[in-house]
Amino acid sequence: MTTSAGTTPLFSYDDLPRLMTLMSGDEKHGPAATSTLDALWVLYDRVLRVSPALREAPDRDRFLLSKGHGPMAYYAVLAAKGFFPEEWLSGFGGYQSPLGHHPDRMLVPGVEIGSGSLGHGLPLAVGTALGLRAQGRGGARVWVLIGDAELDEGSNHEALAYAGATGLDALHTLIIDNTSATHGWRGGIASRFEAAGWSTATVDGRDHDALHAAFTAPHPGRPHAVVARVAPKNA
C-alpha cells in the first residue's frame, strides 16, 4: 500500500484478497462475488474514466453492477480506488452500515444503481446510454456487468435486441460466464449478442491483459459485449 499526498491509501490488485476477507456474513454468494473480481479490477484500474473526484462529473463513464447479489468484490474494488474508506468493509451487511447485501446508490459513493433483482441492469444501461446520447455526451461510456444466469430473464433479450438495432455504441456489457445459467445457445453466449448486431469478444475472465484488450477493442456503430469465462472451481 502507498499513499497519495501522504494521506489517501492507494491499493493494488494484490490487496484485494485482504479487503475481501474484511467482509463476512454472505458466504453463500462468495462465488458470485469472486468470479467478478478480476474483471472489475481491470475495468476500474485501466479502463473506466471515473474516480472519486469525478463521480458526479456529467461526462464520466458509468458502471452499472446488475449482478448485485454478492457485491463484496465490487465493494473491495471501490474501497481500493478510494471511493469510500477501508473501514467501511468490516461493517458489511450490518444495520448501521451503508454496505448492504445489495448495493444502494443513495448510500455508497460510486454506485450508479441499486441492484440485485436479476435482469434489470442491462435495460437500465440501455436507458442510460440513450439519455447520454440525447444530451450530446458522446464521450461518456456505459458499462454494465451481468451474470450468465441473468440471460434467463426476458428483459435482457429485449434490451440487447434494441441496443443492437439502434447502434448504441456507448454501451458495453460484461457477462461473467461461470456456467451458472439454466439456458444457453449454440456457439456460446457471444452468439446471442452477435445475432442482435453487437460486437463481441470472449476471453479468460482471470487474464488481465486479455480482459483489457477485449474491453478496449474498437466497435464503431455497434454496442460491445465481452464474455469473461471463469471456471466454476475458481469462481
Pick out its properties.
single chain; 235 residues; five-stranded parallel β-sheet; two-stranded antiparallel ribbon; 15% strand; globular
Short description:
The chain is α/β, with parallel strands linked by helices. 31% of the residues lie in helices and 15% in strands.
Count of DSSP H/I helices: 8
Q: In sequence order, what are the helices and strands, one letter per element?
A: EEHHHEHHEHEHEHE
Rounded average pLDDT: 89
Structural Rg: 17 Å
Tally of DSSP β-strands: 7
Distance between the termini: 26 Å
The rough form would be described as globular
Helix-strand makeup class: alpha/beta
Query: Strand order, biggest sheet?
Result: 3-4-5-7-6
Largest sheet: 5 strands, parallel
Percent range for helical residues? 25-40%
Tell me the β content.
5-15%
Characterization of the model:
By secondary structure, the protein is of the alpha/beta class. It has helices at 16-21, 30-34, 37-47, 72-80, 121-134, 154-165, 189-195, 208-215, and strands at 2-4, 8-10, 62-65, 142-147, 171-177, 199-204, 224-229. The longest helix is centred in the middle third of the chain and has 14 residues, at 121-134.
Give the topology, please.
Blueprint lengths: L1 E3 L3 E3 L5 H6 L8 H5 L2 H11 L14 E4 L6 H9 L40 H14 L7 E6 L6 H12 L5 E7 L11 H7 L3 E6 L3 H8 L8 E6 L6
Parallel strand pairs: 3-4, 4-5, 5-7, 6-7
Antiparallel strand pairs: 1-2
